[in-house]
Amino acid sequence: MRHLTTLMDVSRDDVLAIFQLAAELKTQTRAGERPPLLQHKVLTQIFEKPSLRTRLSFESAAVHLGGQSSFFNSRDAGMHGRESLHDIAKVASSLSDFVVLRTYSQETINDFAKWSSCPVINGLSDDHHPCQALTDLFTIQEHFGKLDGQHLVFVGDGNNVATSLAMLCAQLSMPMTLVCPPGYEIKPSIVRELISRFPSAEFKQTQNYRSAVKNADIVYTDVWTSMGQEDEADVRKKDFNGFQVNEELMALSKPSCRFMHDLPARRGQEVTDGVIDGEQSIVFQQAENRMHLAKGLLVWLDRRRLK
Ligand code: CP
Ligand code: NVA
């Protein structure tokens, strides 16, 4: 049985197999076909933080594949002291075929997976967002026809999304540059792990966006203040001044360069309307792909249940 707690749980071949399934299932969805590959299977989602895309993409994926989905906020699931995480994990996993968790601490997901009798999927923690990064590279492959060598320039916070993108780019031989103000780099422990596991990874962190954006195939950004960091919003707004992805910044890029954002976006803060709604943007293709990727991932995990 396999989990997806972080991208360290999957190999390059695993990722390419998930992309292949997601692509096939997307083609079938577009043709109006919904093969019941997960008939009567139960997907349970337990979230400590809000969500539109992650929750709905997994719910839709389960329904399209003939399964069912149920959702709990963490209070209703009993995570605020009603019972121990151990007992919740034992019970919820024994009554489900998959569990998707969205948490503050990554530790909560790791512990849940340790005690779970079914696959556990990280639907975002403070440190990682693997389903987002998988969707993003799937979208890049779909758009450019290849991944190898495509340079992703992430302008913004070295947060959960940037971390998962860095891990997946390293795994799939994509150069990645994080452009951020000092102090907002990816956690050094994660960078060390990434370099030790993928010594040939082309990963850079810089404060200078000009040369990075000129060579970018993808410019990516995310919110400056993530869920759980609301108290830091004013400081972050000041610190990220000059790091907005706007028309001036995108004008430095090649015409073939595409703009991506995991959404939700704070329009007017990390990105302008002109960029997000502009010709280079593929953000809504990216958002729709959350569901196709979720379908590929669920089917892939289901097929590995007994292995
Ligand atoms: N991108 C993403 O995970 O969106 P939600 O927070 O709406 O799930
Ligand atoms: N970095 C953002 C991603 C939201 C999908 C957050 O954690 O709030």
Could you name the key traits of this structure?
binds norvaline; 307 residues; 44% helix; 9 strands; five-stranded parallel β-sheet; binds phosphoric acid mono(formamide)ester; globular; four-stranded parallel β-sheet; 13 helices; alpha/beta
Strand content: 5-15%
pLDDT < 50 stretches:
none
| Structural class based on helices, strands and sheet pairing | alpha/beta
Over all CA atoms, what is the radius of gyration? 19 Å
H/E series, N to C?
HEHEHHEHEHEHEHEHEHHEHH
Count of DSSP E strands?
A: 9
**Broad shape:** globular
Bound molecules: phosphoric acid mono(formamide)ester, norvaline
Cα-to-Cα separation, first versus last residue: 6 Å
Number of helices: 13
For the sheet with most strands, the description reads:
5 strands, parallel
Q: What is the mean pLDDT?
A: 97
Share of helix, binned: 40-55%
Within the largest sheet, what's the order of strands? 7-6-5-8-9
Describe this structure as you would to a colleague.
With 307 residues, the chain is an alpha/beta fold. It is 44% helix and 13% strand. Strand 5, helix 7 (160-171) and strand 6 form a beta-alpha-beta unit. The longest helix is centred in the C-terminal third of the chain and has 21 residues, at 283-303. The chain is globular, with a radius of gyration of 19 Å. The protein starts with 11 loop residues before the first helix and ends with a helix. 47% of the residues are buried. The mean pLDDT is 97. Phosphoric acid mono(formamide)ester binds next to helix 2.
Give a brief outline of the structure:
Helices cover 44% and strands 13% of the residues. With 307 residues, it is an alpha/beta fold. Helix 6 (130-144) crosses helix 13 (283-303).
